[in-house]
Amino acid sequence: MNSSSSRAVLVSIVVAAAAISGCASTPRDADTFGRGVSGEVQSVEWGTIQALRPVAIESGRRLTSDTSAVEFTVRLESGNSIVVVQPGTVGDYRVGDRVRVTNDGTQTRVAR
User: Fold this and answer.
1) For residue 38, is pLDDT > 70?
2) What confidence tens digit (pLDDT) does each residue in 40-93 have?
3) Alpha-carbon distance 6 to 110, whole Å?
4) Which of 30, 42, 47, 57 fits as disulfide partner to 74, beta carbons 3.0 to 4.6 Å?
5) What are the beta bridge partners of residue 46?
């Protein structure tokens, strides 16, 4: 493969990766749902926040900034612990808060 062919393949891969990452959508916060989840069944568990920390979700686009997010460590009533990252700010929650953890099989959310 000559250098111009290699360059064309590399450019194609970069363009495809950018397009795919641009299509991935992240909910704006725990109160925002996409149109497709309306009427879908979700499992619900209750738990207590054990730890939280501010993190960022990469935008995947050059012109937009990263999204502020929270990483939750939640101890479920079942005894299991989970970690969930979602858009939001740490100031909206406190360690010790009782929270509802919902899961639709693809996405998990933490809410009070």
Assistant:
1) no
2) 788 999 999 999 999 999 988 777 889 999 999 999 999 999 999 999 999 999
3) 45
4) 47
5) 100
**Alpha-carbon Rg of the chain, whole angstroms?**
18
Outline where DSSP puts E strands in the chain. 43-57, 67-76, 81-87, 98-103, 108-111
0.70 exceeded by pTM: no
Q: How far apart are the first and last CA of the chain?
A: 57
Is 91 within 8 Å of 99 (Cβ atoms)?
Answer: no
CB 45 within 8 A of CB 101: yes
Give me the residues paired with residue 69 across strands.
55, 87
Residue linked to tokens 């916060």: 29
